[in-house]
Amino acid sequence: EDSPCEGMTLAELDIPKEALIGAIVRDGKPRIARGNSTLRDQDHVIAIAKPGSVDRVTSLFG
């Protein structure tokens, strides 16, 4: 199933200021997340967020 963020970089996403994307796990291997990191289908994102931002971050990544 296609992700709504597939092919986008983290910099292109509307990530709340109260959230931080720390890593992207691809093929079982963690990678440090950077603004120019491009997301692929089946990637797992490790995010740190304040409680008020969790729903927004979750909906952002589908």
TrEMBL record:
What InterPro entries does the record point to? RCK_C, RCK_C_sf
Pfam families associated with the record: TrkA_C
GO BP annotations, alphabetical order: potassium ion transport
Where the record annotates domain RCK C-terminal, the positions are: 1-62
Under the GO molecular function aspect, what terms does this record hold? monoatomic cation transmembrane transporter activity
Fetch the SUPFAM superfamilies from UniProt.
TrkA C-terminal domain-like
Q: What is this protein called?
A: RCK C-terminal domain-containing protein
Q: Highest lineage ranks of the organism?
A: unclassified sequences, metagenomes, ecological metagenomes
